Amino acid sequence: MAAVPPPPANPTTVSAKTDRADLLEAVELLRRCTSPEETRQLHARLVKAGLSDNRFAQNRLTASCALSDARYALEVFARSASPSRFMRNTVVRALAESESPGDAVRFYGGTHALGLPANRYTFPALLKACARLLGLEEGRQAHCHVVKWGLQPDVHVSNTLIHLYASCGRLTQARKVFDEMPLRTVVSWNALISGYVQNGMSSEALSMFREMQIEGTEPNEVTMIGVLTACSHAGALELGKWAHAYIRRRGLGVRIGVVTALIDMYSKCGCIERAVEVFEGIPDKNIVCYTAMINGLAVNGHGESAAALFDRMVMVGIKPDEISLISVLCACSHSGLVEAGRRYFRDLQRRYNVAPQVEHYGCMVDLLGRSGHLEEAYELVKNMPFEPNAIIWRTLLGACKVHNNVKLGELVVKEIMMLEPHHHGDYVLLSNIYAAAGRWEDVSKIRRVMKDRGIVKTPGCSMIEVGNKIYSFIVKDKSHRHSEEMYKMLDQMAQRLRSAGHVPNTSLVLIDMDEEEKENSLNYHSEKVALAFGLIKTRAGTPIRIVKNLRVCDDCHSAMKLLSVIYEREITVRDRNRFHHFRGGVCSCGDYW
Fold it and tell me: Are residues 498 and 565 both part of a single domain?
């Protein structure tokens, strides 16, 4: 019996199957695209096959474009007759991560005006764009839309709201979003902790970490980097040690970011030996950890060791970059290594092919100025290949103060006034120069100018860690509940200093008052108040570590050297520039700062 032949194929069915096969193949190829050129070729293929209006194909094409060419993704969206919400979200995300995040905000605004609905995938990218722009007002408008669409309970949306407000310095609003979240993840905690750290609120960051532990949320590597950074800023060594032990127990120390944060924490808490121990334990050292260690050695007064480590980095085949070269130049500056600094500066372009930036010039001006080569530093500033900024001039002014060069100091101040006429530090430095020269009439003029222009001097503030808590003190601070004890100790410190032969450097007092009043003013500087608190609240022989927001004054520096002998304490003071380790009557800086 002959076989019955199959019925003839339906042309419509065959065509549909072919179209579907072509579509699936094109979509798969789009998924595997690795370059804008490949994406454009596949786009042309879709158009030629008549599939460019297919919703599935448009979604995949937009996603592929977004990976490498946000502008092309925007074009695909604009030419679509009925763009999907997925396409809109993809374009927002691509533009938010591009070099022009403001385009993401404008694009969202345009599509919103057309009535395209948003969802929980829209706002994380949009809010990220606002954060990159530091666009508080745009972010607030986006927040209103979040509320309008009922999306605030979404954890990803709320996390990016926290990040937005923290980036814009609005930590109260960031905390409010956090507190209102029905569900929090480790990312939520990290966003707020990082926000506090980035805004200089280390105590609040550490407090949040304690709350996180109480609530039972498991920290991750990002959390610990934030905690270690907060410890670095606050000089909280004991809490930093605890964090290190926690990292070891949990096996979180494998990421280079964590070990680099550990090096930075120990360095900025004045415990350079532990920093070196962590550094040497890294099996595969990269330029980031080398730079952190060079910085740590520099600020702790080990300039020669920092320079030697830089040379070691070069010898093992790691090419220096702009940042590592800034670090080694800073090391030379802190330790007065003039010839080494000149050599590294010459090698920037000649050996390492790095074009000198304003930061490199700033390091050289500091190095030359502090070492007494003021004219050479001034010539370097005048011959820079770009206009010097206020920071460069301010660095030179600081050197004028160190060497009491009134003439050059006055000239430099004129340059600064044309750039930043309302910065209090410049007036204070010039006042110091005049006071050291006994020119009290000029000091008074400076004070009148500051008053007329509403310029207020930043008050000195010092922090000390006692019992895993951070305590802050300002000049003549009497707000603390232990003030009575502290001031008794301050009086005792002053008496014992006089008995040891210390003569207060009253030339540092910018007000023309009698000598006794000047001495009393010097006795109550914030670092001395913090030291008094440390002496009454810690056991005999315990090292005392203080962090100050301003430069340590000459009188406090000489007093701390004697106090380290009188009370048989190791006293470490970190000012805004570097560390001073006082042991047995000497300072690690060698009186060069």
Answer: yes
- Residue 473's DSSP bridge partners are 462
| Of the residues 441, 457, 473, the one at which a domain ends | 457
d(CA 181, CA 155): 7
Checking if the pLDDT of 277 tops 70, the result is yes
Number of H helices, E strands in the chain: 30, 6
Boundary residue ending a domain (422, 457, 492): 457
Domain with 453 in it:
359-457
Query: Would you tell me how many other CB atoms lie within 10 Å of the CB of residue 401?
Result: 20
How much is the mean pLDDT over the chain? 86
Residues in a beta bridge with 539: none
**What pLDDT does 508 receive?**
55
Q: Is 134 left (phi over 0), alpha (psi -120 to 50) or beta?
A: left
Q: Which region among 67-81, 116-130, 495-509 has the lowest average model confidence (pLDDT)?
A: 67-81
443 in any annotated domain: yes
pLDDT of residue 567: 96
d(CA 295, CA 136): 34
Identify the pLDDT of residue 51: 59
Pairing of strands 571-574, 579-583: antiparallel
For residues 520 and 515, which has the higher predicted lDDT (pLDDT)? Answer: 520
pLDDT mean over 65-86: 77
Tokens of residue 109, six digits: 């605004």
Return the closest-CA partner of residue 112 out of 73, 155, 69, 146: 146
Q: How far is CA 220 from CA 88, 196, 225, 248, 564, in A?
A: 33, 17, 9, 12, 40
Taking residues 373-392, report their average pLDDT: 94
Helix/strand/coil (H/E/C) assignment for every residue in 497-526: HHHCCCCCCHHHCCCCCCHHHHHHHHHCCH
Domain count, the chain: 2
User: At residue 369, does pLDDT exceed 90?
Assistant: yes
pLDDT-derived band at 446, boundaries 50, 70, 90? confident
Amino acid at 249: R
Q: Are the beta carbons of 87 and 62 closer than 8 angstroms?
A: yes
Q: Which amino acid is at 105?
A: V
Same domain as 470, residue 449: no
Task: Say whether pLDDT at 20 is over 70.
Answer: no
pLDDT band at 28 (very low <50, low <70, confident <90, very high): low
Q: Which residues contact 259 (CB under 8 A, 6 or more apart)?
A: 253, 278, 281, 282, 289
498 shares a domain with 577: yes
Reference 287, options 270, 250, 312, 253; nearest CA is 312
Q: Distance between CA 342 and CA 331 in Å, rounded?
A: 12
* Residue 418 domain-assigned (yes or no): yes
Crossing angle (nearest 10°) for helices 338-350 and 303-315? 30
- For Cα atoms 169, 172, 175, give the angle at the middle one, nearest 5 degrees: 110
Q: Could you tell me which of 247, 250, 251, 249 has the C-alpha nearest to residue 263?
A: 247
The number of CA neighbours under 13 Å toward the Cβ of 38 is 13
Measured distance CA(286)–CA(283) in Å, rounded: 10
Q: Which residues pair with 548 in a beta bridge?
A: 462
Between residues 423 and 398, the one the model is more confident about: 398
- Rounded CA-CA distance 430/412 in Å is 10
Q: Where is pLDDT greater, at 251 or 46?
A: 251
Residue 234 pLDDT > 50, yes or no? yes
